[in-house]
Amino acid sequence: MVQSLFNPLTPKTTFDVITLATLSTHLLVVLAVPLAARRAILMAAFAFWRLCYNGGLGWILNWQSNRHGLVALFKRNGWLDPARGGRVYAWLKAELEAKMGPDYAFESVPIEFNVWLLYRQLVDLILLNDFTAYFFLCSCYLGSASDPEPWHAFLRVAGGITLLAFNLWVKVDAHRVVKDYAWYWGDFFFLVEQSLTFDGVFEMAPHPMYSIGYAGYYGGSLITGSYTIFYASLAAHMLQFLFLSFVENPHIEKTYERPPLAVQVIKRSRGRRLSATFADMAGPGQRAAGRSAPVAAAPATADEASKASMRERPTSLWHPDLIVFKNFDLFRASDMLILLLLIYSVGVPLGVLWATSHARLVLAYSIAQCVGWILFRTLVLGILLRKQSTSQLITRWYIKRGGNSEEAFSSWRAVYNTATIMTYGSFGLVALATYHWGDADYSSLLMFHTLGLLLIGFHVWSSRSVYETLGDFGWFYGDFFARDPSMLSLAPPDMKLYYTGIYRYLNNPDKVIGQAAFYGLALISRSWTVFALALLLQACNFLFSAHVETPHMEKVYGAQMRRDSGIVRTVKNAVNKGIGQKVFVDDGSADGG
User: Source organism's superkingdom (predicted)?
Assistant: First the structure.
């Protein structure tokens, strides 16, 4: 439909004329308005069209998804009904027939299809103007950058062109996969016999058209070298993510079911406390220690059985697990101890730093503490997990002392979560102790803080995605403890390996992007010390993955393990296709990406 818009040999409809007229106004502004006013007008135009896209189209799609509102509006007014539509019906019919060509029969298709075709006209109008306004806005800032060296400018422009080319490839490949039906949100209007497709660029990143598909915005920022363009691009990208969160994602979850097994894993992991009975928990560990579970008469009804199960459940397991600070309970002893530990190890040094002149002493302490927690979380706990995998060391320790496997796992969860919290806290302490900007200019300060906050936000998103995929059981390495029958109430029902959620794109997200927040802290504090500590943590995580996680997964899951991640497979296929021969083969390691 867009191709016919710019083809001079194709007859133009009223929608085409409106679109071309609005596009022409941007060119007129560029040619006739002075630079300062031109920048202001085009910035306002870009903001207007972006709000029309994310706000206007988003509202219409949300209305259509929840109430079939747009289709109902056409039905109620009879605009597509030959008996009631009158001139509006005749005009819309002529417009669509001229646009779609001779193969299209207006009367023989459902009203939902015709309404969708009309909605596409509105989409083309808004998106083309949004792109045009942004393009001309960037043109107003060309040559505004002040590079200290010529090679700086060369690298900046080369990087921008690379991002633009990457953006173009993402959009083209995404359209190849989803076609016009999904490209124009067709499933908001009618459904066809198909399911969600994860192919090509859709194996590379979640929602690639909205995530990596906006790389061109940052390419434009690099080419112009303008902070104004960068922040305008960032604001537009954030609006797109809001559109995704409040419009597309709710509709996708409502329309396309998640893989049933993935749902089973998550629900069983999160709801395990109410699904297991005391007898389920009474494994060989309790019997070996000479402890016996109380014997009760069989409940008469399912409701009585549920109540009995809840009464018999140990009170220590009623509260949900502490996941970093999620589910924090001020009146739970372990949570209070973690809070006190943070206050003593992070809060007290900060007080000393601000109240006295012992900055070097506080910095040395904070660095030593951070290194200690990094090594404890990766090296010490890694050794324990490896021993647990090979010989069930932690479980046997508890059984030997009268405990059981679930108590061992519960204790491990508390220790691992404490180490995670203290790693975050110690990094924050080092960042505050080393934070300095001196006489740095405001634009650099704002840029580095923005990039740092983006990396922290990216870290939060990736961690939440990992947790939503794994649940409590996987987050705390539950399959290292799942040999004992008493752990079966905590484990997924079939203990198989599924590459869903963020794992569809990365085999080990924590190893690759799990330290983004710490690099963000390094940017915000402008500290090479924080950057070096982040590198140390990432290197330790690589060792942890190579020597603890991967051997255990190979032993437990074997051939279920995937060699190449979705990103690696997509890049290999793109290179093979671009060169025209098979350069890469599937010979990656089991722990790739």
Answer: Eukaryota
**pLDDT tens readout for residues 257-287:** 654 443 344 344 444 443 443 334 334 333 3
Q: Which tokens go with 153? A: 């400018």
- Name, in order, each residue with C-beta under 8 angstroms of 589's C-beta and a sequence gap of 6 or more: 563
CA distance 368 to 529: 12
Query: Please, what is the end-to-end C-alpha distance for the chain in angstroms?
Result: 39
CB-facing half-sphere around the CA of 365: CA atoms within 13 A: 17
pTM for this model (two decimals): 0.78
Which has the higher per-residue pLDDT, 100 or 246? 246
Give the other-Cβ count within 10 Å of 503's Cβ. 20
Cβ neighbours of residue 38 closer than 8 Å, sequence gap 6 or more: 29, 30, 140
pLDDT digits (tens, 9 = 90+) for 212-242: 999 999 999 999 999 999 999 999 999 999 9
Are 325 and 425 within 8 A, CB to CB? no
> Contact at 8 Å (CB) between 428 and 530?
no
3-state secondary structure of 301: coil
Task: Out of 162-166, 500-504, 535-539, pick the least confident.
Answer: 500-504
475, two tokens:
């987050």
Length of the chain: 593
Mean pLDDT of the chain: 81
Q: Count CA atoms closer than 13 A to 109's CA, side-chain side.
A: 16
Task: State the DSSP string of 490-523.
Answer: TS-SS------GGGGT-S-HHHHHTTHHHHHHHH
Residue appearing with tokens 């305008």: 232
**Residue matched to tokens 């996708």:** 252
**DSSP label at residue 526:** T
Are the beta carbons of 187 and 253 closer than 8 angstroms? no
- What's the rounded Cα separation, in Å, for the pair 22 and 52? 14
334, 322 contact by CB (below 8 A): yes
Nearest alpha carbon to residue 567 among 77, 200, 141, 175: 200
